[in-house]
Amino acid sequence: MSLMRFRIGSACHSLHLRQLCTSTSKSDNTHHLLISAFNKDTFQQHFFSIPIIHHPLSLGSKPTSLLTLTLPSSHPKGLNTSQYLNPFFLLHRHDYPHSNHAPILTYNPTTQQTLTLPHSLTSETETDTTLYAETHFGFDPLTNTHKVLRAEWTVAIPESNPRVSQMVCTVFTLGCRSNGSWRKVKINPELPFHSTKYMSSGKSVCINGAIHWVTQFGNYIVAFDLKDENFRLIPLPHNYKAENFKPLHFEFNRLIELGGCLALVDYKYSGDIYRGDEYICQFWILKDYHNHVWVEEKISVPFDFRINIYGKPIPIGTIPTGEILLEPFSWYVSCKDYPACLLFYDMEGQGFKKVDVTGLPKWVYNGRHSIIRAISVYEGASNSIFA
């Protein structure tokens, strides 16, 4: 079965590429929580929306079902959801693109429109094969364009010893200016380039017209400028490297957007967290983007969040009112005394607020049946279905 053959349910409808430039909507300054959950029993991925109430900070009690995707059995973990770049999310296979024919979709939650992108260019030939590949999503405010970047690592057939890999990048531009095809990106050979060190250790973040990711090995953040489509490197803060650099460690760190700045996240424990000792969430915030000036911040997570029940809370980013949104490591708690929840941290008041997430289907809260693929915040619109 072709991986392009999946079904879209609910009120969502598909777009042609030429329609994309007319598919946006006007903002009305409302914000919503998007929760994406994959049902392992039905191979359906569901997208739910919950309104965020700002005064006082809380969540609406009646989630709205936005979108249902029925996926083939070749998608055992569902689709990843990118960073929200107004007005789109990018949806792509969890291990995309180990299969060159896995679908990539843009999704506008306020207009309920999707666009399935054409298959990307493949560098596989009779003499080369793809070893690993990644998908990244970005927005350039200077040209007002969204772009999808595919980074692919290839090796020669037969493989040499030691193995030598090559990085190949292609870009797809969304909107009216697009010709509906992928383009190959020329990589500057003068960069201090080691292809294997450019692999991402997590989700990418788009800020200041560039896509960023932390390398799996090495001392840098990779930045891909969307306007000129060139790569550059941002050095990690020295104290971050001193405290965190060890083999494979970067796999567990996260890069997020924090108040409009790029930020690195890591976790520290003081003593035994199961006895209620201190749990620290550390941030390295790139306050001066052009001069690479980092500022370190720390927050102490209270034990009453029940770290031993939910697992460590993971920062997602800031919501429009400035609070940091943190999701628990696991929602799959059967005890009624510990319902699924999110944590918000006020940087100015230095206080936490725990908000229960209720009203979702029961299977969403059961780890045997579901995988929570994404928790994100997006901006509403004046013609939104939530109006």
From TrEMBL:
Residues 36-362 form the F-box associated beta-propeller type domain. It comes from the Eukaryota. InterPro entries: F-box-assoc_dom_typ3, F-box-assoc_interact_dom. It holds the Pfam family FBA_3. Coiled coil: none annotated. This is F-box associated beta-propeller type 3 domain-containing protein. It comes from Quercus lobata (Valley oak).
